[in-house]
Design brief:
single chain, Rossmann fold, globular, 10 helices, alpha/beta, 14% strand, six-stranded parallel β-sheet
């Protein structure tokens, strides 16, 4: 059911790879709520995924490839998006993360630092570059909303989350810092959503993911938030209902983030 929360709004969705992606689900929800969207991902991801199928489901949304670490690519993306929309942009979803050390099986204590720089650039500083490009081009309307997806490993230790924990910490810092400046300049709000572990293509690549997701469910009073639930939350954050929320890390995890222990976990430990 649509509530028409995004009627008249225009946005860019980064990171939709396949139907498991939160970005994919968010794009569909945004379209259903009346938004016009442009889809973007890295050229290699566009070749691997099925994004044209998503584009068709979203009213033949344009698909514009962009390496988020490359300022020229981002400039081209924003210019083409504004040309398509016939004006400025109202919301952005940053659903981007990639760890070279995790892919290569490097333990956190043995990381390759050149790979680490690439991880931080793609997974965290890319948000700064996206915001900087929008800032330089004056591409966002007043009261626009930018959301980036993060994880609670930025605050707590999850050993197998590896260098991505550092990347998410940096991502959240960029959100606060750029969020301040963009708020002062143009009332643009910038937030992160800290989602439950979700069975996306990227998330499932983390070592021990099955045990990880089951533990999170047992430690969450409401259970794990699904990708569809996260997409709904993103829609609310893009809407005018959240105009005064900015520079926040918003936990969307069924209560996991503030639960010390649940009775279910205690009982399992006592067996």
């Amino acid at each position: 059911m649509s509530n028409n929360l995004l009627i008249g709004k225009k946005g860019i969705i980064f990171g939709a790879l396949d139907e498991k992606s939160i970005a994919w689900k968010t794009a569909l929800k945004c379209h259903a709520e009346g938004a016009q969207i442009v889809l973007s991902n890295a050229p290699v991801a566009l070749r691997m995924g099925e994004i044209n199928k998503l584009a068709a489901a979203c009213g033949d949304a344009p698909v514009i490839g962009a390496d988020v670490t490359n300022m020229e690519d981002l400039k081209n993306l924003f210019e083409k998006a504004m040309e398509h929309f016939g004006g400025k942009i109202d919301f952005i979803l940053h659903s981007i993360g990639m760890s070279v050390n995790v892919r290569k099986g490097k333990h956190y204590t043995e990381m390759n630092y050149e790979w680490n720089q690439k991880t931080l650039d793609i997974s965290a500083m890319s948000l700064h570059k996206v915001l900087r490009t929008a800032w330089d081009l004056d591409a966002l309307n007043e009261w626009s909303s930018v959301v980036a997806l993060t994880y609670i490993a930025a605050q707590r230790v999850f050993p197998d989350y590896n260098e991505m924990a550092d990347a998410k910490s940096l991502l959240e810092s960029v959100t606060r810092s750029f969020g301040y400046h963009y708020g002062v300049k143009k009332k643009v709000r910038v937030n992160t959503i800290s989602q439950s572990p979700t069975r996306t293509t990227a998330g499932s690549g983390v070592k021990g993911f099955d045990g990880f997701i089951n533990y999170a469910a047992a430690m969450s009073p409401l259970g794990n938030a699904s990708g569809e639930d996260c997409a709904n939350y993103c829609v609310v954050m893009f809407s005018d209902l959240t105009k005064m929320v900015t520079m926040q890390n918003l936990f969307h995890d069924g209560g996991f983030s503030f639960t010390g222990v649940t009775q279910e976990v205690v009982e399992k430990m006592e067996k």
